[in-house]
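Format notes (please read before filing issues)

Several people have asked whether sequences and structure tokens are stored in separate files. They are not. Every record keeps both together, in the order shown below: the sequence lines, then the token lines. Line labels are part of the format and must not be stripped during preprocessing.
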Amino acid sequence: MDTDFLRSLVLVAEKGSIAEAARIDHMTPAAVGQRIAALERQMGCVLLDRMGHRAKPTQACLNLLPRARQILEDVSLLASDLDDQGLSGQLNFGVISTAMSGYLPKVMRDLRQQAPDIHLTISPGTSRALYEDVQTRDIDVALLVEPPFALSKALQFFPIALEPLCHISPEPLKDASEKTIARSIMSSSYICYDRQSWGGRIAAQYLNDFGLMPDILCDLDGPDSILHMVREGMGTSLLPLWPGVMLDTSDFHVTIIRNVRYARPVGLLSTRVGEKTPMINLLQQSLMPAPKLR
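Then the structure lines:
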């Protein structure tokens, strides 16, 4: 039995869609469908109930999934069985969008130099989605905004950085006072970092604390996309100062809010114990020392 076929089955069962599983695996839906059909012939049973664009696992499939996941996990760890240091094999790494440019390049360089036998698989996503993926062990570790609630005993969060909140605008402010920032926010369209997202809650708290009710152009859970909109002169915003922001400030201006109350805590979320702990520890080392507020 081809383990790639099992992976496709697990993905479809988890995502509820052949098309979504195909997108994640960089395949066509038809190819994924053929893999599922081959498994159904081998098993002698129907594994998916297909309903339009959705695919629901049958009871037979649900019975198989725990062992299928374990087989895929065991296969990913085969290389590490020959490595006393545990620095080989596949590491599934979830990353929020701002970390793709801000933190990921250094991590990839370091792992390439220090542990070339680690095969890094990058999964982009929101902090909330990545948290759920770590919980269900769909990914091994995630770089995300610190969850705004107590973690279960099975999970651990390792802080990496405090990213200060910033006022981002097309034009420079005359000073960095709270009154000047408030005046800018209230006198132009405001592009809102989604208040339901973990990072956006911090920006929303700033608005609430200063009694600001701006003219909101839109809500968006994507700081990098919001930054692009500010560059286009569409409004102002409050965003965390992630490492990639300051690479090119030729067409927007940053005013740092130095109160740590509004800083966005970013770090690594993983399970407390596991066979991939040595790889996750190396990942932590690559991300340190943490940037500090000045």
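For reference, the curators noted about this record: The two ends are 56 Å apart (CA to CA). The domain at 165-262 is CATH 3.40.190.10 (D-Maltodextrin-Binding Protein; domain 2).
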